[in-house]
Specification:
By secondary structure, this protein is mainly alpha-helical. It has 9 helices and 3 strands, in the order αβααββαααααα.
Length: 224
């Protein structure tokens, strides 16, 4: 699944989404320098919104501003994956727990539909579709918590989490169906009202993806 860039004046967010997509999908590699003049020319935009977009990506953890060296795609090392994983698994666990505690029947139906979408993408081995469906699943779970702060925190770190998810899934494409099993078990516990086990299944999923991502960066030589 590709994302198309359409230049529009002042749309720094759109530029950030376009570049973020390319970073998450490893089209722009970890550590790769991002030359502002070149990017601006390629996208047909001025430097001002591009610089603003790069600052957005910096906040999302996808790029780094390096003194006297410009901007580069953030490194993806074993150390950074583990650091991100420490945060993501706890927040996702909290998200799952509060979702069970506060969700209503409508929330459960929407989340269940999201689970079915994940299964369909897994069967088709559609990694990009699966990644997008995961985001929609998590958005639905966030709504179920009835806690806007949890939603803000999750969406804040989601870009860096998505990059880990993507490399995890391209390194272990055959494990998409295994990933769905985590969601299926979590949904069962969700339906049973078992907040603790729902949270544990989601933490297990995050741990599994981190392990796959670490294997990927080792194989590609990104690990340090």
């Amino acid at each position: 699944m590709a994302i198309e860039f359409k230049a529009s004046k002042g749309l720094a967010q759109q530029i950030a989404e376009y570049l973020g997509f390319r970073i998450i999908h490893m089209e722009l590699k970890p550590g790769e320098r991002l030359l502002e003049a070149k990017l601006a020319a390629e996208m047909g935009v001025s430097r001002a919104p591009l610089r603003e977009a790069l600052r957005i990506l910096e906040m999302n953890g996808l790029v780094e501003f390096v003194p006297r060296r410009g901007v580069r795609v953030s490194e993806m090392t074993e150390k950074t994956i583990l650091a991100i994983n420490d945060v993501v698994k706890e927040v996702i666990g909290l998200l799952a727990q509060r979702g069970v505690e506060n969700a209503n029947a409508e929330d459960y139906e929407i989340i269940t539909q999201g689970g079915r979408a994940l299964q369909e993408y897994a069967e088709a081995e559609d990694i990009s579709g699966y990644l997008n469906a995961t985001l929609e699943f998590v958005r639905s779970a966030c709504k179920a918590t009835k806690n806007s702060f949890i939603e803000k925190v999750v969406l804040y770190f989601w870009p860096v989490a998505s990059r880990i998810q993507y490399v995890s899934r391209i390194s272990k494409k055959e494990e998409l169906k295994k990933n769905v099993k985590y969601f299926e078990r979590a949904l069962k516990y969700f339906n049973d009202g078992n907040a603790e086990m729902t949270a544990q299944e989601m933490r297990n999923l995050v741990e599994s993806e981190a392990k796959n991502a670490i294997q990927y960066v080792r194989e590609k030589g990104y690990a340090k």
